[in-house]
């Protein structure tokens, strides 16, 4: 079988070679020599600069006009596992890593002396940290302690502004997942190719826009914040528990009246076939953000709640 690079566009091939260590011969059998896989985690530019955010010539922004920035976007990742469908093992880690995506991409672990071939089964978990977690890029001890106490796998702090109104949010999310059989977003195939003397980057790419989606089961969902802002009535600090006061069947705006778009149509959040713990905005956000971890950009995993 020909190399995966043969079928890539010139732009994609250049990206793969410069960022992900190139495409080896995609034979599924071992070649001569050995290479390295570096696993990193990233929230892309959105976790760093917030929204609106320009990505690949497209502006990602809120449908209802909010500007949202983050001061922290901490994720806890563990159980990194790479092997083949025919039973060969590359690595199976037991460590848990904590990284603040607001600080940019962070390398979690590097595995060397791996056989040259496609390793087609990659799995990982998004799960709460323990006291033994590896603090990858200077997460504040107070935040790590809060995640351990609350059994949170995400810790997110940020601010939102529209029309002169400003709000802050500080959320711990408890929605751990097993992410299995992940597709590589670079070549659209399962797992990673190790090349001789090469370094292959396997990036767990967190799509932070999922946190604000208004529909599930589609990457074409819109981001909205009106319903989130309206969940707090007494101050400008939005707690995650307050999202539980917003019923998905009767979403309210800042003025307490039914939430509508600019055309006067009622805003609806669509969960599709995704089961929710309750018919509230809090449950919707937990379900949506549970699927935000991808691989090398758009690569999808089979996601199962833990």
TrEMBL record:
Entry keywords, A to Z: Signal
Domain of life, per lineage: Bacteria
Signal peptide region: 1-21
Protein name: Lipoprotein
Lineage, opening ranks: Bacteria, Pseudomonadati, Myxococcota, Myxococcia, Myxococcales
């Amino acid at each position: 079988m020909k190399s995966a690079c043969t079928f890539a566009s010139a732009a994609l091939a250049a990206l793969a070679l410069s960022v992900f260590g190139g495409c080896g011969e995609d034979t599924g059998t071992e070649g001569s020599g050995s290479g390295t896989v570096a696993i990193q985690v990233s929230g892309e530019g959105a976790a760093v600069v917030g929204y609106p955010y320009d990505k690949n010539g497209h502006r990602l922004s809120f449908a209802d006009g909010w500007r949202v920035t983050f001061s922290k976007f901490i994720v806890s990742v563990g159980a990194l596992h790479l092997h083949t469908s025919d039973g060969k093992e590359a690595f199976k880690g037991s460590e848990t890593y904590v990284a603040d995506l607001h600080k940019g991409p962070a390398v979690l672990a590097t595995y060397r002396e791996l056989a040259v071939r496609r390793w087609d089964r990659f799995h990982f978990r998004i799960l709460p940290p323990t006291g033994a977690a590896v603090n990858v890029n200077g997460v504040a001890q107070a935040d790590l302690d809060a995640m351990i106490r609350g059994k949170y796998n995400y810790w997110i702090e940020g601010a939102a502004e529209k029309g002169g109104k400003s709000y802050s949010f500080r959320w711990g999310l408890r929605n751990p997942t097993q992410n299995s059989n992940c597709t590589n977003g670079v070549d659209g195939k399962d797992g990673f190719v190790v090349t001789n003397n090469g370094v292959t980057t396997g990036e767990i790419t967190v799509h932070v826009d999922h946190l604000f989606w208004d529909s599930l089961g589609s990457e074409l969902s819109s981001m909205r914040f009106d319903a989130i802002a309206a969940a707090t009535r007494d101050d400008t600090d939005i707690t995650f528990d307050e999202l539980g006061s917003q019923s998905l069947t009767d979403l309210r705006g800042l003025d307490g009246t039914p939430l509508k778009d600019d055309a006067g149509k009622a805003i609806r959040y669509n969960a599709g076939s995704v089961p929710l713990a309750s018919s509230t905005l809090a449950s919707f956000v937990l379900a949506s953000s549970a699927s935000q971890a991808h691989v090398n950009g758009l690569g999808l995993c089979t996601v199962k709640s833990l």
